[in-house]
Every structure is written in structure tokens, then in C-alpha cells.
Amino acid sequence: MEKVESGFLPSQISREKSNDAVSVCSELQTMDSYATPESTPRRSASSRLKDHFIGATPLQKRLESVRKLTSFVPPSPQRKIPQCSQLQEDVDPQKVAFLLHKQWTLYSLTPLYKFSYTNLKEYSKFLSAFIVAEKQKGLAVEVGEDLNIKVIFSTLLGMKGTQRDPDAFLVQFGRQEPGTNAEIKEYAAGYNVKFDMYSKIFVNGDDAHPLWKWMKTHPKGRGILGNAIKWNFTKFLIDKNGCVVKRYGPMEEPQILSKSQLPSENREGKVLWTGWFCCIFGDSLLETVSEDFTCLPLFLANGAETNTALIGTWFQKTFDCHFSPLAINAFNLSWMAAMWTACKMDHYVATTEFLWSVPCSPQSLDISYAIHPEDAKALWDSVHKVPGEVTQEEVDLFMDCLCSHFHRHFKIHLSATRLVRVSTSVASAHTNGKIKILCHKYLIGVLAYLTELAIFQIE
């Protein structure tokens, strides 16, 4: 990887094939990707994930027919610079901190039918049971396994743009297990366990018990796909001379399948998946639906895609809604870059960075363009005209200045490439639908634009 720096703005170009990047770019036709709203959006999640979700239900088809009767409203040519919402002051600081600095996958979500905030505890139980049932299909399972599944619904009070916006809520899915040896013994006694039990120990890693380390490295104790213990009820048969005779997998008699859990110091267990639903300044969607629907068009997930698909399926079956990966294109990224650069920061925690993709064969090239955040802010201030607002003209001019500066130093036309990622001290976003929010002060402002994109995709 080669780095090149310029005099005006600290910039860098990263080449996966450094000898070809400049020549390839100069031969490409110009296609102004960041200034074209009609540029083809890139799906924000794996196409496999979409296959898990259910198609439009009768109620959703009726809802769509209602929307078709409403006038089409294109994206606004001007937007307000993100500001700190007074309502955000009511949000639990610990929950806000939990949402920051995590990579979230974005989805749009049609309104939830007959959803009630008073039934969150019941939803937790129903979703837990659903997850257990889905994960145990066709399998004999460990006794008491269902008690290790835990789903928690909780509201995010204050996470809204106006009082009219529905309350955001958080869903967490994980496993819990007894903590101390006494708790484990008490837990097992509930299932009439009579055999001798030993203290819980580590079976993998540097802290693994010496016995398990020895059994796993014995010639007849090695696993098929590596020596690590990956499942509960892995068994070793040892003869009278103390030699390992055979290693039995969890699916061999008795047929029991359950993912192993490393001992946790936290009795609440490990959170495996988190998702949250919100609506920030969602008036355009709220006005089109009846009171039977709860509008939370923006859904953010962190965790395995299989869990996202599983939980999404339950929501679709229960509330007659539909999830879709939220498309973010280069045009959206240019707006994000301008709005986030315009935000006043007490201190900067990251450089302002852009990533352009060069469409070439057989392997694409990436150009990384890093700028000191204060220089980026100075450039924005020089093109910004209307206080408190960002216009399309200003966004175009801001991006044009960046591209012109880059061309002046490196003779590469960035307009012939495609913008795929923007990173600032406020947040970072990628065309694959991944986002990471870094600044709590502008959390509501970032979510407001994402809500707008989600509503636009739904309509």
C-alpha cells in the first residue's frame, strides 16, 4: 500500500495494485456518481439475509395502496445541519454509550400492526420461545436449554425528534447461565441430576484445564475440524491405562446439540445480538397510516445475520411488517459528508476520510482520501452560505472542491470512480449499509437523515 501526501490538505491514496491505479483511472469515462440521485443503490446486506424474510402480507399491500394515492415527494434539496435535540437529554446515558462505536447494519421497516409498548415483557417471552423453537428444529436438545435463551425489550425514552415520534425501543438477545458452582448445582437439581458434578472449568484457550489440553492433543482425541471444543457434550473415552481411546462428538449418542458457553463473570450472560427501532422526524410517514400502525421505519442491527433473519421473521409474522436492507448510494454519502463536516465539534476524534472504488478488472482498486478534520471544516465554511442549513448546491461544490484538489495533486479524476465510504468524527457510513455513530451530541441528527432514507425507500 502506497501513501502520497499533498501540501494543501493531508491526503493519501491507497492502492491495492499501486502500479495500475493512475493509468486505469485516466482511461475511465467520467461518471459523476456522488452528484446523481439516480445512481444505482448498493444493497446494504447479504442477499441471503433477504431470503429469510417474508414477502408483503395482505395488510402491507393495503398500506402500500394507500401510499400510492399520496403525492410523491422527492428528497429535500436542503436539510438542516444536525443539532443536539433537547428530547435527547431524557435518554439514559448508559444506553446512548452502548449504541455508539458499534457497527450497525441498516434496514427499512414498514409500520408495525397492533404493536403495543405495554406488552414488551410478553414480546420478550414470545420471541424467546420462538428462537428456541427455531434453533431446535429437528434436534434433540440439552435439558433446560430453553432457559438459557433470554430476550429483552426496553424503550429508549427521548430517542425522538419530536413529541409525535413513537418511542424507540431496543431488543437484545443472548444466553445466560448460572454463575457460581453452588448456582450450577442448584440449577441442575431442578432436573433431578444424580451423577457427580465437577466445578466448571475452561476447556479452550490459554486458561483451559490441563486435562482438557492433554485430551485434545492426544492422537485419538483430536477433532475433525480442529481440536477446540465447539459444542456441549463432547466426550472422551479413556482406557484403564489413561490413554484416550476415542473422541465423541455431541451428535453421537446421546444426540444432543447445543452451542457451548464459556464461563462468564457476568451472570446476565453474553449479548449475542442487538437491534433497535426508531423514528426521528418521521412526520411524512406518520401522516399516511392509521392508529393501528406504529411507525418505526429505521431498524439497526448488530450481530450475526442468522440471528437478524430469525428475529426479523418473528417481527414480520407477529406485526405484519416487512424488512428491507436500507440502500445507501454515493449521492447519500455526499450529503452525509457535508452535513457531518458542518457539525461543530468540541474536539475531533477521527480524520475525515473518503473511500472511492475504481471499477476495473480483474480486481477493483480502492482510493483512500484522508483530510484533517479542521481543514475539511474550513473548506466547508468557505462554500457554506445559509446558516443552519445544507443545500444541494453546497454539497456539490464541497465535493467538487475535494475532487479538484485531489486531481491537482495526483492527476486522478475521482468523478470517474464511485464513492463507497465516508468517515468523520460524527459518524461513518458505507454503501453496504453499515454505519458507526461516534458522537453522542449529534446522534439524533444522524438518525434523522437515516430515517428520511428509510421512509423514502418504503414509499
- N to C succession of SSEs: HHHEHEEHEEHHEEEHEEHEHEEHEHEEEH
**Largest sheet, strands/sense/barrel:** 11 strands, antiparallel
Q: How many structural domains can be distinguished in the coordinates?
A: 3
Question: How much is the radius of gyration in Å?
Answer: 26 Å
What is the residue-averaged pLDDT? 76
Helix count, DSSP H or I runs of 4 or more residues: 13
Instruction: Assign an overall shape.
Output: globular
From the helix content, strand content and strand pairing, which structural class follows?
alpha+beta
| Count of beta strands | 17
Q: What fraction, in percent, of the residue positions are helical? A: 25-40%
Strand portion, in percent? 15-25%
List low-pLDDT spans. 1-54, 56-74, 139-147, 254-268
End-to-end separation = 43 Å
GO biological process, one term: response to oxidative stress
Organism: Myotis davidii (David's myotis)
GO molecular function, one term: peroxidase activity
GO cellular component, one term: chromosome, centromeric region
